[in-house]
Amino acid sequence: MQWRRRRCCTHTAKLLYLLSLLGVLIFLVHQVWLPKLTGTSMKRGFPVVFRAGGLHAAKWNLSSQHSVWRFLLIPELRFRADANFSSHEKLGVSSSEGNSHSTNPQTEHVSQRKQDANGTQTHRPFPYIINEPDKCTENRPAPFLVFLIATEARQVEARNAIRQTWGNTSLAPGLSLIRLFLLGKTEGELGLLQQKMLQAESQRHRDIIQQDFLDSYKNLTIKTLMGMNWVAVHCQQASYVMKTDSDMFVNTEYLIYKLLKPELKPKTNYFTGNNMRGFAPNRNKNSKWYMSPEQYPDEKYPTFCSGTGYVFSGDMAGKIYQTSLSTPHLHLEDVYVGICLAKLRIEPTPPPNGFLFNHWRVAYSSCKYSHLITSHGFSPNEILKYWHHLQGNKRNACINMLKGRAGRAH
Ligand SMILES: *[C@@H]1O[C@H](CO)[C@@H](O)[C@H](O)[C@H]1NC(C)=O
Ligand SMILES: *[C@@H]1O[C@H](CO)[C@@H](O)[C@H](O)[C@H]1NC(C)=O
Ligand SMILES: *[C@@H]1O[C@H](CO)[C@@H](O)[C@H](O)[C@H]1NC(C)=O
Ligand SMILES: *[C@@H]1O[C@H](CO)[C@@H](O)[C@H](O)[C@H]1NC(C)=O
Ligand SMILES: CC(=O)N[C@H]1CO[C@H](CO)[C@@H](O)[C@@H]1O
């Protein structure tokens, strides 16, 4: 009896041993096949995205331009550099520099006159309606950072909030910052009215550039390329550029002093943000982020940075713009820039930690917001509110939180 029991126990032990081996095996297989996300926080971030913030969060939720839900996650495969990069591609931008100071801004064209190898014109030029060709040269020393902020004519309040907060160009003493809002044009009666107001706003703030293309979600790529071209033509000496949106909270100081570090020699071939690695095109026709197999046949996008906020060295503006001339446009602006980067064989640099660039809304606390660069989905009033709170609590952003916790504990 005793012998049999012992024997049975060794059997059980063996069985357990085998089971645990199997477990380890399954675990390992998972590790290999699960997508490796830089900042795995992203996955954890999902439920956090729109949890806090009540009404406003709802307003900016799934319908938001850069929602994380637009992609399917698939296992990581190596990106095939299928889009062949013609080696004779020259870097730098062939600019119509000659008339950049033209008295009639209407006639100034973005230099999109290049044709691709097949002689098919993939892009046509869009003339500027409003430009600031001297903005950069007026600034001495050479700009450290240029903000390119995608916005629409009607978003006056958002622009004003940004001017007073994270887009204030005097935030970094001794460094020159430039803020530019990027716009297309609106059609119809409303468009005419908005245009008048926009002209006045431009006269007052001198921080608007606008080209003659229809301002629509599907034209965001054109808008971004307008900004890249502006930097390449009018501001080659800029050390860094950030492209972001008007519903964003940006911690400009953290970006400048903790990430970019003005005391160092400016980087080149540098591109960073919320790295989206291993994402597949959304093939659901009803989705806002639908990508047809005709437009993008590959099963996976190259690594790209969420369009809610990415940062790059000044030299990249011209390189990306130049590459775009031979790259058929896709309406998803950030994916498109990622494709240009892949063609250039420049891999986005992962940020030092996964919490810096958030393309969702991080619940506000002065402690968290003093240690991040972007958070997404804010009304103009919220930008003002949180910005001022953060400024008021900058020195002890986290101490207050600890005190608060201690207080609650008692
Ligand atoms: C997102 O917002 C829309 C309205 O803007 C609302 O109808 C919808 O229920 C919201 N979804 C969630 C998940 O909050
Ligand atoms: C790119 O083009 C070169 C020469 O045209 C060719 O040898 C190479 O196989 C191509 N690469 C890809 C990935 O298509
Ligand atoms: C920008 O910041 C400076 C210095 O902090 C401040 O004096 C100025 O009023 C701010 N500008 C705006 C438009 O808020
Ligand atoms: C983009 O802008 C161009 C030029 O104004 C316009 O013809 C085109 O319809 C726009 N595309 C979309 C999808 O709005
Ligand atoms: C006229 C011409 O150059 N046609 C080329 C267009 O592109 C395809 C594929 O890239 C080539 O095979 C053609 O020769």
From TrEMBL:
Residues 61-146 form the Beta-1,3-galactosyltransferase 2 N-terminal domain. The gene is B3GALT2. It is a single-pass type II membrane protein. Residues 93-109 have a biased composition (Polar residues). The keyword Transcription does not apply. It is found in: Golgi apparatus membrane. It comes from the Eukaryota. GO terms for biological process: lipid metabolic process; protein O-linked glycosylation. GO terms for cellular component: Golgi membrane. Residues 90-127 are annotated as: Disordered. This is Hexosyltransferase. GO terms for molecular function: N-acetyl-beta-D-glucosaminide beta-(1,3)-galactosyltransferase activity. Coiled coil: none annotated. It holds the Pfam family B3GALT2_N. Its EC number is 2.4.1.-. It comes from Oryzias melastigma. Its main location: Golgi. Pathway: Protein modification; protein glycosylation.
